[in-house]
Amino acid sequence: MSNPLVSIIVPVYNVENFIEKCATTLFEQDYDNIEYIFVNDCTPDGSISVLKEIIEKYPNRKSGIQIINKEKNEGLPQARKTGLKNSNGEYIMHVDSDDWVELDMVSSLIGEAIKTDADMVICDYYINYSKKEIYKKTFPISNLSSDDIIIKTLTLEILSSMCCKLVRKEIYSKVIFPVFSNREDMFVNLQFYSIIKKYSYLNRAFYHYNKANDSSITQNYENNKNINDLRDFYIVTKNFLQDNSLSESIRYLNIGLCYSIVSISNGNSKKLFDAICPSANNIKYIWKNNSLSFIKKIVFSLPFLHLEWLYVIIKKFYKTTKGRMYD
User: Fold this and answer.
1) HEC letters along 60-123
2) CATH level 3 topology of 6-210
3) Beta bridge partners of 205
């Protein structure tokens, strides 16, 4: 098919101030054959009203737009699953409703998929703060084996987002969406990488991650639900690795979790390790993490050296001046 249908799935929650830019960049894509599926995850604000106003400005897109209203809030993974069930496209893209995209993202990624017959096309991305934009390169996975991709995903060397990629829909029939909402993207991507045989990579950024929104569906904080989610992620991912003859990769799971747990700690890393994954509580996992610079390895080692108070000070300073240390 020279002009395949692409379904773009957009969960909506608490993005009244951001969805206009998101929807506008989606409706102004230079590719015509697009289906838009907005999933209202019981947003408490006026996001849907704003979205409907924007839709009226694009009459040429209206016939390809669905707004699905969920009966209860179930979180990002289940919202995406709902969108997927209602999609008709040959290829799927996911976009978070507080983010935005370049106007030729769809045409560029689908063009690459057609040219290479790839099951997944990935691209670079931007991280956008209120006053600055950072270009981020995605690891060019097309030259790696599936096992290597899984290892680098577990250690956070490869971005685990569902966004900034295009995936053939039939791949999703073999994927389980988790109930937990912390590291849910990583769990889905690990399944992708155990299934997909053909990847392609575009060396250009098309996707903008908005880090100026503190209240969207994708933001995570140190609270009981997210701690429970991380623990559930560890258990489910460990079982997945064992079931797929990848038990040797569990130590890489510990590397990634060690970094993640220290990242969310505000002076209580021991408590978090005990609650989430005690086996990851080892300084060696910081120094084996190839995604960290030498300076970051030193900083993230502080809690293991009885200097967590200093780590907290550095973390607060970095957040105030540059953004989160782990972006």
Assistant:
1) CCHHHEEEEECCCCCCHHHHHHHHHHCCCCCEEEECCCCCEECCCHHHHHHHHHHHHCCCEEEE
2) Spore Coat Polysaccharide Biosynthesis Protein SpsA; Chain A (3.90.550)
3) 124
Q: What is the mean pLDDT of residues 225-234?
A: 91
DSSP code of 306? T
Read off the pLDDT of residues 135-165 as tens digits, 9 standing for 90 and up: 999 877 777 888 999 999 999 988 899 999 9
Q: Which two tokens stand for residue 108?
A: 């560029």
Q: Is the pLDDT of residue 279 over 80?
A: yes
Where do the DSSP E strands lie in 190-308?
199-210
Show me where the domains of the chain are located: 6-210, 224-321
- Bridge partners of 120? 167, 199
Cα–Cα distance measured from residue 204 to residue 109, given in angstroms and rounded to the nearest whole number: 10
Q: Which of 69-73, 225-229, 268-272, 282-286 has the lowest mean pLDDT?
A: 225-229
Which pTM was predicted? 0.89
